[in-house]
Write the structure tokens for this entry.
Amino acid sequence: MKSISCVAKTQEGLEDVLLAEIENLGGINAVKGKRHVSFETDQEGLYRMNYNLRTAMNILVPIAKARVKNTDQLYAFAIRVKWDKYMSVDKTFAITSSVKSDYFTHSQYAALKVKDAIADYFRKFYGSRPNVERDLPDIKIDVHIDRENVTLSLDSSGSSLFKRGYRKNAGHAPINEVLAAGMVSLSGWDRKSDFKDPMCGSGTIAIEAYMMMCKIPAGICRMRFGFQDWDDFDKKLWLKVKEESNAQRIEPVAKVVGTDILDEAIEQAIKNVERIPGEKNIEFKVLDFFKEPIPPGTFMVVNPPYDHRIGQHNILEFYEKIGSTLKKKGLGSTTWILTGNMEALHQVGLKASKKYHLMNGSIPCRFNKYEVYEGSKKKKFQKNIPST
């Protein structure tokens, strides 16, 4: 099949995870950039990436590049693209844009100029133009301007890939699925031991962990991908990709548990997991993290309140209580904490053995690993050295 150059967009801090995913799925010449990974594949690979990648936001296929310094040059460049190769008059389209340039100060104005160029192209050659549809377009076009370099791409994903399709109820300040999957991957969870999110909210982190463990494709609940509206869409090939991907599923070998103090949150989590196929070795229940036991060997990933979108009374005391709970009851446990409140994080009072910088929406976050041992790590490791 013909090779296709692609760019998979992701969130800051997840580039290495996405790179590994792409290479594992057969992408070649993969190169990591800031918030993206470029790679090559074929049509089958493009379908497979969209269906399986957990940490990609969108997969773009560049169709034209140029150097421009003003909107007139941008329009002149865009109208020269042979748009009828990619869409027809009866298709709807939408344009997304991102701009980092001294020549262009407003991303929406750049998008507007490309929209005008597309409309004028079709009027010139066909006498009519395709309509713009912002919510559910047939064709989604991405405009990316970096200084004077502009790239026009087709978005093969359509709506963002974090919209998995299983989440019926988001709850308050939900973490998106791409970030949740990235956190699980970065945590180093072996997918063989039990996994827990003790402040699970609507259950996204736990559900993403469960899907990883069972090798359930990330897009199994999605109804549509952008490439399905492309003129070269191959339905037989698409069904083949889905069948082969679904056949990789395995039975769960460990238990995934999500708990939360709020009844409403657990009700939402239970509804959200209903669409995930297979035997459900995943459980959601109402429990107070500060009162439940933490057996040795417990592995937890938690996204507690930051006091940003969800107000938490006495946030500093809340984080201090998390730390004291781990110290008193969590010997032999491993806990990863994501937060956007650095002052509160210091109150945990434990030394992090690993740290990652991530973004939760527009909020800069720290993702820290805390391992709780009785005594020093040195003593722990000395106990595990076999006698000779």
About this structure: The domain at 177-217+226-380 is CATH 3.40.50.150 (Rossmann fold).
